[in-house]
Amino acid sequence: MAEPDPQDSLDAATRATRSLQGLSTELTARVPQLLEAMRSVGAGLELHSTLDRICETAAELAHARYAAIGVVDELGEGLSDFVTYGVPREVAEAIGRRPDGHRGLLGALIHDPAPVRLADLTTDPRYAGFPSGHPRMRTFLGVPIRVQGDVFGNLYLAEKQDGAEFSDYDLHMVRVLATEAGIAIGNARLYEAARQREHWIDGSVAVTTALLSGGDADEALSVVAEQARRLADSAAGIVLLPAEEGGLEIVAVSSDDPASSLGVIIPPRSAVVAKLLAGEAVFIDDSATDRRMITRLAERFGPSMMLPLHSGGRVLGALATPRARGARPFTETERTLATQFASQAALALMMAEAQRDRERLAVYEDRDRIARDLHDLVIQRLFATGMMLESAQRRSVVPEVRTGVGRAADELDVTIQEIRTAIFALQQEPAEAPSGLRTRVLREINMAAVPLGFKPSHRFLGPVDSLVGELTGKNLVAALREALSNAFRHAGASLIDVVVDATVTLPDGRGAVRLSVADDGVGIPEGGRRSGLRNLARRAESLGGASRIEPGIGEDGGGTTVVWEAPL
């Protein structure tokens, strides 16, 4: 991340001083308040909190009841974000959708970014009315915010206290503040971009680590879907592969309801499929209304990125990261980082495939060697031994000996036939057996260590590989992935302990496996999102088990322990 340029702050201070020269003592008396406001605006690096702080500071400085910042979208045609101050949450929810800047006074200020001061905005010809439930507003002050010479957005103030109008003094003060706000926003954007890049790089490392640590192809694709969903902050992560009958089939999903999406095929007539298979990325503003989206799944989603998984001139499939309807669109930075992630994931998939091919080839070569040794050495020696026994049988004059030797020769013939059958089996392609549960659990833990910054501790109780069935094992691994993801995204944990216990007995006497994921984080807040916990419970209940939450391993029982159990 680039360091903030001290010259920017110096230039801002110089411009501020010049703008204040010759003004009244009233304004001069407010200079300390202005300087304190400028200091407050530049106090943080997180972008959205910086915008919140600018709104609050500007409202206090100009004695306004309401303040807002409209962030201009990348095309300069509307608003991509709208941050407010002074409007209660329940009022904002009653108003509904925030302004998009495509019409009215806010839209006019996007295309003509100049200071505006109005005694009554409702009389301005650019005024287009307020939506139902909107607070009453009359006096208005708008100032553009520029970041490195480009318009970032506009700072709006409304309803000066005591019914007064905004003065020239207010305009001068807010313009100075907007200059400092531009510098603060520029620094916050640099920090945000660096942090985003770091997260996407960590996600790529986690995917590569998981894919190259072994395991079957289904689990590898699930890892890609889960990481893509987390990094893109999307409602789902979806991996699609070419279908036998043409088009693309959804083969891996990370979402709150994956079962409804798995197996859906996007037909080859889709324009999106054609572009993806040609190696081109597709970006959708609203999946529910875009005519190119022809499946029933599109109705659930809004903005979406659909990226080809291609490497070395080969398209393996596609990766989709749709957001919920009404969610913010993907920025240009997010699109670039996601495209790079898709390329890295495709490369990792190819490397994992090549690694599995090498391992499979090594097994084939070993099996061929064993088959040759059995044929060239063991069978030949057994055959020679059989010839010796037949010769001894012919020379023997004792009937019992002749009978015993003949029986031994017959047994050798049977043994030779069995060995030849084994040689034939060794020369056939072996069926791929899935990795053991212990290996899959360790792989999830190693993958989670990258974004967490530390490796969770783990314990296994009982012979988990031999006791836990394949279906239960797959659901346990998915539950572990969800629990570790929650610990990373929401808990802020510094310690995590994973226990897989295959010695558990349910109240009805059935044997069971229990997964416990304990952390020392902040716990589950009241009213917090619980879709992940409901998903864990559904997985357990579908197998005849259950899921629950217990105290964590922090001091005085702080944190959370997710307990998931299902019959063996």
TrEMBL record:
Xref: InterPro entries: GAF (IPR003018), GAF-like_dom_sf (IPR029016), HATPase_C_sf (IPR036890), HATPase_dom (IPR003594), Sensor_HK_TwoCompSys (IPR050482), Sig_transdc_His_kin_sub3_dim/P (IPR011712)
Q: Under the GO molecular function aspect, what terms does this record hold? A: phosphorelay sensor kinase activity; protein dimerization activity
Q: Kindly provide the name given to this protein in its UniProt entry.
A: Two-component system sensor kinase
> What highest taxon heads this organism's lineage?
Bacteria
Q: Where is the GAF domain?
A: 46-195, 216-359
Does the record carry Membrane as a key word? Answer: no
Q: Name one Pfam family in it.
A: HATPase_c
Keyword terms of this UniProt record: Kinase, Transferase, Two-component regulatory system
Q: Where is the Histidine kinase/HSP90-like ATPase domain?
A: 471-568
Q: Does the keyword RNA-binding apply?
A: no
According to the UniProt record, one GO cellular component term is: membrane
User: What species is given as this protein's source?
Assistant: Streptomyces griseus subsp. griseus (strain JCM 4626 / CBS 651.72 / NBRC 13350 / KCC S-0626 / ISP 5235)
